[in-house]
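Quick one, tokens below. Sequence please?
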């Protein structure tokens, strides 16, 4: 029997456990899907099929002997090419990281996946140093969106999202510092969770450069991607075993839902605004307590602190510092500078040399976290856009700071793609993304469901309730 790889990860794990399918057969089904779909997408950029086939056979033998390796026993999957995998070292789109020997120590998340019985057979594409909301690099080239090949799947977990949407994989692990889990999920119609800060370990993530001292991963997180919320929950049980659950809601009527879809200086197109309204309407119809509210943090101040916290992280531990600064740091600084505010970008660059300014930004962030804690004492979740638009056309012919995107017929700065994701990043909040609707052209649109730090399970539970309500419409 040919395995049905359109089934969820939970269903496939159960089929493996029941003996209805073997790991070997399931792996071969995914390889066939990869061979059929990947040439037009370029989502999976490196594979180790011999090792994967050997491991699948070993796991089949274990099940035949009545033994289980764990929650993901025998399930094939890919992983974003920022994680070290023995046999598939991380390249992260960087020419300077090519040519490394295949023997590397697995990243911590990879160790957990393998210990749970997952079979990692391929790596998915990412922009250079995971530093863009589009996925392309000089090593592996451009990754395309399965819904429209002329558009990006997002970044930096763009290859992961494209592979999920195309059925090439059923689970993925990405990372997020600037919406890198959330924007690709939104652009490709899949699900993701940006976990609470430090819930999932980042050890073995590139950047920083392979073999360098680990940087303090302020803002950065590792997190799951899947095609539905139950599969996110399954993967989180492996990535963050024992994370706090508490009493979880089992209906939307018991939830306190805040809605945030208007913000001074944040762009938002009608399609993405309508997606938030759709969830708001569902919550109201289900009897939830719904209010228009958000943490009282001024948008300009939020983005300013985001910039100041982000810049030192980008530079930390990376190779060829002077050259890297010219190629990436300045573009990133200007990327966040809105029209008419380029002096602010220069301030960011100079701030890299000032530990006092970094400490000042961290203190301001702590105040924001307190504001969020107070807000979420009164609200279970906050629903908000992921980005102002659906998947954008490929655009790599200009530097980051000079690019534009179109929002309802008006050109705005590329930096608008980072605005709506900033709150959860800066304040360490968990944020799930689920697909909600599509544009007239058939492009997916997702919505963020944001909660308080440490309540990842509640965020996922409420996301699942919204997902179920959407399925009934």
């Amino acid at each position: 029997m040919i395995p049905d790889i359109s089934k969820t990860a939970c269903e496939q794990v159960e089929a493996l456990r029941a003996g209805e399918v073997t790991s070997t057969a399931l792996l071969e089904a995914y390889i066939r899907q990869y061979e059929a779909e990947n040439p037009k997408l370029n989502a999976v950029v490196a594979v180790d099929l011999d090792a994967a086939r050997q491991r699948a056979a070993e796991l089949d033998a274990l099940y035949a002997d009545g033994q289980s390796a764990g929650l993901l026993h025998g399930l094939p999957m890919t992983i974003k090419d920022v994680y070290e995998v023995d046999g598939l070292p991380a390249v992260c789109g960087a020419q300077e990281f090519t040519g490394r020997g295949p023997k590397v120590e697995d990243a911590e998340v990879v160790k957990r996946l393998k210990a749970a019985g997952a079979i990692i057979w391929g790596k998915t594409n990412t922009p250079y140093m995971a530093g863009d909301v589009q996925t392309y690099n000089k090593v592996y080239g451009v990754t395309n969106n399965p819904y429209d090949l002329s558009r990006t799947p997002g970044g930096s977990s763009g290859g992961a999202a494209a592979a999920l949407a195309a059925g090439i994989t059923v689970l993925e692990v990405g990372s997020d510092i600037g919406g890198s889990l959330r924007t690709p999920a939104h652009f490709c119609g899949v699900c993701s969770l940006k976990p609470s800060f430090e819930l999932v370990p980042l050890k073995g993530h590139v950047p920083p450069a392979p073999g360098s001292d680990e940087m303090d991963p302020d803002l950065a997180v590792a997190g799951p991607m899947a095609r539905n919320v139950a599969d996110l929950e399954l993967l989180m049980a492996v990535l963050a075993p024992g994370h706090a659950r508490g009493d979880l809601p089992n209906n939307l009527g018991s939830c306190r839902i805040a809605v945030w879809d208007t913000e001074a200086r944040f762009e938002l197109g009608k399609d993405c605004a309508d997606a938030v309204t759709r969830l708001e309407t569902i919550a109201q119809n289900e009897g939830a307590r719904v209010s228009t509210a958000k943490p009282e943090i001024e948008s300009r101040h939020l983005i300013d602190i985001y910039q100041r916290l982000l810049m030192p992280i980008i530079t930390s531990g990376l190779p060829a510092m002077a050259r890297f600064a010219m190629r990436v740091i300045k573009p990133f600084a200007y990327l966040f500078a809105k029209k008419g505010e380029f002096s602010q970008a220069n301030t960011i660059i100079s701030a890299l040399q000032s530990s006092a300014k970094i400490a000042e930004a961290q203190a301001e962030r702590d105040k924001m976290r307190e504001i969020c804690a107070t807000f979420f004492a009164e609200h279970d979740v906050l629903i908000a856009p992921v980005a102002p638009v659906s998947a954008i056309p490929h655009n790599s012919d200009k530097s980051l700071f000079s690019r534009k995107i179109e929002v309802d017929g008006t050109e705005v700065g590329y930096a608008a793609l980072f605005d709506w994701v900033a709150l959860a990043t800066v304040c360490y909040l968990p944020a799930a993304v689920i697909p909600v609707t599509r544009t007239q052209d058939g492009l997916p649109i997702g919505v963020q469901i944001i909660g308080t730090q440490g309540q990842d399970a509640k965020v996922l539970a409420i996301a699942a309730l919204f997902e179920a309500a959407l399925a009934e419409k």
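The longest strand covers residues 431-438. The chain is about 40% helix and 15% strand.
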